[in-house]
């Protein structure tokens, strides 16, 4: 994780201050990463500090791929007609248009499953090589 990375964060503050018990969530930018802790600022201006386990770096390439996926759908023209240039507008790290927000969540699930399916496919291929009498293959690699 590096300074300037775009991130998504979600955690409950346990800081022994008046902010303790407050849910902190949203997207923002990393200011500093030190000794397993991430310091930064959310898009709404709220500063935060938390262990790295509660932070996920946002892949800008994934956002571009998501947008291309939406634009390829037959319903895209209807969405543009209804929402115009506001279609991909974000507020506090989420898409404002509910349809796009839900589509993004589904896309993340689909992409996660695709990753698992690809990994299973590679493992099956390795097993098939072993069954055909090939040399032993390291299934963990």
How would you describe this structure in keywords?
single chain; SH3 type barrels; two-stranded antiparallel ribbon; 7 strands; 26% strand
Characterization of the model:
It is a single chain. The chain has helices spanning 60-72, 76-83, 98-131; strands at residues 6-12, 23-34, 37-42, 47-51, 55-57, 90-91, 94-95. The protein is an alpha+beta fold and 141 residues long. It folds into two domains: 6-57, SH3 type barrels (Roll); 60-129, no CATH class. It has a five-stranded antiparallel beta sheet with strand order 4-3-2-1-5, with no helix packed on it. The chain has a two-stranded antiparallel ribbon with strand order 6-7. The mean pLDDT is 83.
Draw up the topology in text:
Blueprint lengths: L5 E7 L10 E12 L2 E6 L4 E5 L3 E3 L2 H13 L3 H8 L6 E2 L2 E2 L2 H34 L10
Quick synopsis:
The chain is α+β, with helices and mostly antiparallel strands and 141 residues long. The chain has helices at residues 60-72, 76-83, 98-131; strands at residues 6-12, 23-34, 37-42, 47-51, 55-57, 90-91, 94-95.
Mean of all residue-level pLDDT scores = 83
In N-to-C order, the SSE pattern is EEEEEHHEEH
Q: Helix proportion of residues, in percent?
A: 25-40%
Helices, by number, come to 3
Low-pLDDT segments: none
Shape: flat
Largest sheet: 5 strands, antiparallel
The side-by-side strand order for the widest beta sheet comes to: 4-3-2-1-5
């Amino acid at each position: 994780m590096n300074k300037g990375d775009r991130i998504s964060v979600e955690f409950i503050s346990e800081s022994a201050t008046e902010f303790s018990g407050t849910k902190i969530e949203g997207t923002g930018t990393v200011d500093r990463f030190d000794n397993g802790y991430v310091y930064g600022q959310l898009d709404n201006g709220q500063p935060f500090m938390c262990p790295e386990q509660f932070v996920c770096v946002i892949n800008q390439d994934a956002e571009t791929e998501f947008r291309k996926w939406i634009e390829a759908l037959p319903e895209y023209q209807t969405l543009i007609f209804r929402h115009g240039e506001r279609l991909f507008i974000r507020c506090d790290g989420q898409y404002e248009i509910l349809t796009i927000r839900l589509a993004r969540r589904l896309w993340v699930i689909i992409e996660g499953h695709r990753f698992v399916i690809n990994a299973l496919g590679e493992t099956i291929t390795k097993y098939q090589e072993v069954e055909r009498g090939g040399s032993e293959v390291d299934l963990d690699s």
